[in-house]
């Protein structure tokens, strides 16, 4: 169950990868494309391993806290990869970083509002709400 949750949470933020890649499709060479997808996949696997280890070591509560921090860290690393691979477009990369991060945090705020109406705080319910909102 923990591994499935970590995989689903990783896939939630993977949608931002497509938004980061889409504006640069006309200028990306085949070699850059291959490098980007290898880096994206590697960072996603690392993110999933960290989430899975966090669930096993500290429980769901810690993973929910990490998810907020991890999203900005993951987004920053993806932006850094984009800047290094597709050079000469720093302003565009930073703009895309801001747009994608804003969208992710807006999506993350929906479960926060929903959870306030539920009695008690249950991190598992919170995580399921996050997965539900991102899947819509």
Estimate the mean pLDDT confidence: 81
Portion in helices: over 70%
Q: What characterizes the major β-sheet?
A: none
Structural class: mainly alpha
Helix run count: 5
- Following the backbone from N to C, one meets helices and strands in this order, namely HHHHH
Strand content: under 5%
| Anisotropy-based shape | elongated
Global Rg: 16 Å
What's the number of extended β-strand segments? 0
Q: Would you give an account of this structure?
A:
- The chain has 136 residues and is an all-alpha fold.
- It has five helices and no strands.
- It has helices at residues 2-21, 30-58, 60-85, 90-116, 123-135.
- Helix 1 (2-21) runs parallel beside helix 3.
- The protein is elongated.
- 22% of the residues are buried.
- The model has no long low-confidence stretch (mean pLDDT 81).
Describe the structure concisely for a colleague.
The chain contains 5 helices and no strands. It has 136 residues and is mainly alpha-helical. The longest helix is centred in the first third of the chain and has 29 residues, at 30-58.
How are the SSEs placed, and which strands pair?
Layout (H helix, E strand, L loop, with lengths): L1 H20 L8 H29 L1 H26 L4 H27 L6 H13 L1
């Amino acid at each position: 169950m923990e591994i499935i949750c970590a995989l689903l949470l990783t896939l939630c933020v993977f949608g931002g990868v497509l938004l980061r890649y889409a504006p640069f499709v006309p200028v990306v060479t085949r070699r850059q494309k291959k490098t980007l997808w290898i880096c994206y996949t590697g960072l996603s696997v690392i993110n999933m391993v960290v989430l899975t280890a966090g669930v096993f070591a500290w429980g769901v509560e810690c993973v929910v806290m990490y998810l907020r921090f991890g999203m900005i860290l993951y987004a920053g690393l993806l932006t850094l990869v984009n800047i290094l691979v597709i050079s000469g477009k720093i302003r565009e990369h930073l703009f895309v970083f801001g747009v994608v991060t804003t969208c992710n945090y807006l999506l993350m705020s929906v479960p926060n509002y929903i959870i306030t109406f539920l009695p008690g705080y249950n991190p598992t319910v919170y995580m399921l709400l996050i997965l539900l909102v991102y899947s819509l």
